[in-house]
Design a protein that fits this description.
By secondary structure, the protein is of the alpha/beta class. Helices cover 22% and strands 24% of the residues. A hairpin with a 2-residue loop joins strand 2 and strand 3. The longest helix has 11 residues.
């Protein structure tokens, strides 16, 4: 698939800082490999060719591990020299792509077939997951065509 993927990996990871001190949250070790490795494995499986890693805090740890290519996927780095927040990080990372892109969090695994999002006729598509305890995230109400009717205090990322 030629659509690039932007991975947000520039946050401070304050909630995990007591567990993972010297690496950014997406580099937290899982079975001896950084969490980002598993995202790259899934992207490789989905035949993604290009990733833009949006990095900031402790960016060198990510750059030193993944270099300019990982698992056959070309990597560009959108380096935040000052924290831009989620929206700012996405906006800046989009300056590295020519057209559409998928946007993923670097600290979350969401098993979804990206090609199904790509085939959408909408200007933007959001992958949602049904949840039963969603107080932390809020709610999204969809119509019969899976279009968002209303949102209440929800976080996409």
């Amino acid at each position: 698939m030629n659509t690039p993927v932007i991975i947000l990996a520039g946050g401070f990871g304050t909630r995990l800082s007591t567990v993972v001190k010297d690496v950014p949250k997406p580099m937290a070790p899982i079975n001896g490999k950084p969490f980002l490795h598993y995202i790259f494995e899934e992207l490789q499986h989905q035949k993604i060719k290009t990733v833009v890693l949006s990095v900031g805090h402790l960016k060198e740890v990510i750059q030193d591990y993944f270099l300019d290519s990982y698992l056959g996927i070309d990597i560009q780095y959108a380096i935040e020299h000052e924290p831009l927040g989620t929206g700012g990080g996405i906006r800046y990372a989009f300056s590295f792509v020519d057209d559409d892109a998928f946007v993923l969090n670097g600290d979350t695994f969401f098993d979804i077939d990206l090609s199904k999002l790509k085939n959408s006729t909408s200007d933007i598509s959001i992958a949602l997951k049904p949840m039963f305890e969603f107080d932390r995230y809020g709610t999204v109400e969809l119509n019969n065509e899976n279009r968002i009717l209303r949102k209440r205090y929800f976080i996409i990322f």
